[in-house]
Amino acid sequence: MSEYFSNIRIGATTIATGLAITLRHFFNAIHRKGDAGIDDADYFKQVDGLCTLQYPREAVPTPALGRYRLYNDIDDCIGCGQCERACPIECITIETIKTTADDLAACGKTSQGQQKRMWVPVFDIDVAKCMTCGICVSVCPTECLVHTPVSDFSEFDVRNMIYHFGNLSNIEAEAKKKKLAEQQAQAAKEKAAAAAAAAASGTAPAPAAKPPADEAGE
Amino acid sequence: MSQSPSLNTWSDALSGFHLGWFPLGLVIVAAIPLVFIALYALTYGVYGERKISAFMQDRLGPMEVGKWGILQTLADILKLLQKEDIVPTAADKFLFVIGPLVMFVGSFLAFAVLPFGPAFIGADLNVGLFYAIGIVALEVVGILASGWGSNNKWALYGAVRSVAQIVSYEIPASMALLCGAMMSGTLSMQQFSVLQSGPYGFAHFYLFNNPIAWLPFIIYFIASLAETNRAPFDIPEAESELVAGFFTEYTGMKFAMFFLAEYGSMFMVSAVISIVFLGGWNSPLPNIGGFALNDLTNGPVWGAFWIIMKGFFFIFVQMWLRWTLPRLRVDQLMYLCWKVLTPFAFVAFVLTAIWEIYK
Amino acid sequence: MQELGKAELNSTRIIRQDDNRVVIEKDLDTEYMVLSMGPQHPSTHGVLRLECITDGEVVVEAEPYLGYLHRCFEKYCEKVDYPGIVPYTDRMDYLAGMNTELAFCLGVEKLLDIEIPRRVEFIRVIVSELNRIASHLVAIGTYGIDLGAFTPFLFCFRDREHILNLLEWISGARMLYNYIWIGGLSFDVPADFKKRVAEFVTYFKPKTRELQQLLTENEIFVKRTRGVGMMPAEVAINYAWSGPMLRGSGVKWDLRRNDPYSIYPELDFDVPVPDGKLSDIGDSLSRHLVRALEIEESLKIIEQCLDKMPEVEGFNSRSAIPKKIRPKAGEVYARAENPRGEVGFYIVSDGKSTKPLRCKARSSCFVNLAAMKDLSKGQLIPDLVAIIGSIDIVLGEVDR
What we know:
Helices cover 65% and strands 0% of the residues of chain B. By secondary structure, chain B is mainly α.
């Protein structure tokens, strides 16, 4: 019987404690937490009161390190394709065209002064697929591929989520390809001629240029 | 008791008004509570509950539609109106359709005997309290009809739970109100208020006037939570267990009817508790010396203000409880009813009887 | 007692009185009802489906059905190289990404046999304990929701938000960090990090008390959870339970103590087990209490780490990361204490490739959930909800 009454008593007191807590919060609702970012020194000074923000107008700032939207500074990109290979979900598509010797100046240099040797007509990032793991950023040798702290980039059409960073238009790319093919054909012809000449002269031909290593398969 | 001559003057005058053969006055008398339910449920009920819960949980609540989100409920109603009114193929269509109607009518009918101030009451029945207790039980029929008619297992669970719960909690609730009836010696809602009026304001209310009244007051308040399916007794619609309970299958305006009915009966029980124990439309302010606060704040309009404010206060407490407490289990609910509230209600009944005889 | 046919048994209740008198209620005409709870149900914490056979409100049997969130984690591991797997481990237990990352990285580091800088170890422990607190806050908050208390849930999420902000500050992402890398960390922590974490600890301590008053001590909450879903210690061990679930049954088993990794041996903390005063040992309330106590232990660990963490001038958190991660041929099983129990990775390397030959993940929730059938027998539907909540499943980890 005493347990019966003590149950009622405990029930009433604990419920009253809970009610007191919620009422305190209710009256505390005149304060608001504010939208200080975590790197703000006052972050933990304004914690009581309402803590939600009205999103489009007020937002918690994303930290500078924030990994959200990918951005590629194509002027610095050397088209090495390491990001494409490192990406675990294959959301980066790169097509490159070797720059012909006479175009090297037009292709330009990176901001660190490295000579670019590739045209990058296609550098597409499907940010809808991107899982913001940051692995591509960590392998980029020229630090041109970065995650920006822009967190809201929704689109009505999913096709708009594919970002094109290529530095050549289709027509230009066709022209460059053609030029490269012509030059290579020319080079091959010359090589064949040289080989033929060498064979005629009886000396061993110089070994052909090593084919580019295929690292993707490893 | 000085107010008795002016009792019911407005509603009597209105109900005597005929347009030819058509009793237009009566329709208006009936329409006033309906408009009141709709307005209050929209403004205070839904919007207030959202804001109160938000503030208790450190949130902002609705903010976008109108200043401070005041028009949020209106936008919700518009949304509900536009929604497709789905009746499941396998449902019992008749029961499915009348369920929400019966429920709403049940909660609305009880407003007939609620005095909105000394000069206005739908029907000053001499068995008003009895009628109010009885007619609210009609809601059970609506819940069972909709739960059974939905042909959904969760809805069925909700309906069966609800019936068991409401029928059980009628007993302590009625016993507690019976204590109030014994204190006043009447069942008429207007007489309750009349008997609790006096120059000292709140001191004449039964809750403060009578040393035992707090017990039936608390019992009725707890039981009324269960009768209106409010937390912590919201097991018929327990969203984490039964998805949405008996209204799982409802959409659009039928769903809105359940909402209106719930908020309607919330106000109904709050008004009943304030009439029986807290003096109804009487001002709680006392006359202090030369300041005749009580006399100043009484009258038909002030009366309406007081009863609505008292009702809103209890609705606030209901919401406050809802956003604080976890939900009881079915068997614990029954334990609370039969082993705690009912015995205490009987004790309160006997004590009240003794007090009334020997006071 | 007369013999009853099987068909008859269904419609008959046998009630045994206290004085051993048997009362047979015949022709009740009750039927079992199959109730499919989930995958879209508010309290199955994601996409778990329970097929319950119910007799009125009583659950006769509940069978969990899994696989709605299956993402082929293990098969995928064979396709991507080691650093690429780390973000996938985040997505296994998305509420405790840091802890899962740590377990995986421990495994690969064991295979590679490399030395980790001491500062990195401290940062790893701090972030995984922060993540443990965040995860337990979700567990406690959603448990409140399961039992109908909505407000504690939002208080928990308000505090979790601070942790997520802290972790976003250092790693760049809020939930799926990819912060702990094989051999190091993706970034060193910012200069103010230690100060801010210390501020968080002072901020958070009174909040735990408030949460306790609001939820754990509430009589309705206690009544709803005490004695519900009892799991004796030996059965729990046989089910290979781990983490707060096992400790809730009174077994003092914590991988941070029993199979120490990282710098945990240097730290002073308790392994909380229920004392049987507030709860019956092995019930849902015990498991809840263990989580609540573990939050406080984690705060203790964080405070110690902040004191002991070495400051290194010009520290490079990636210094120990190998240029090419290609472990020697061999196999390893690495495990760590996740907020939900033991999470382990069994990794086989063939020594030639930068991708594992096989990677098997031992998921704590999956193992804990296996006992569902036992736990749910003869419980009421509201109790079933209470039991699922106390198991604290993350479907991402169950299905992987």
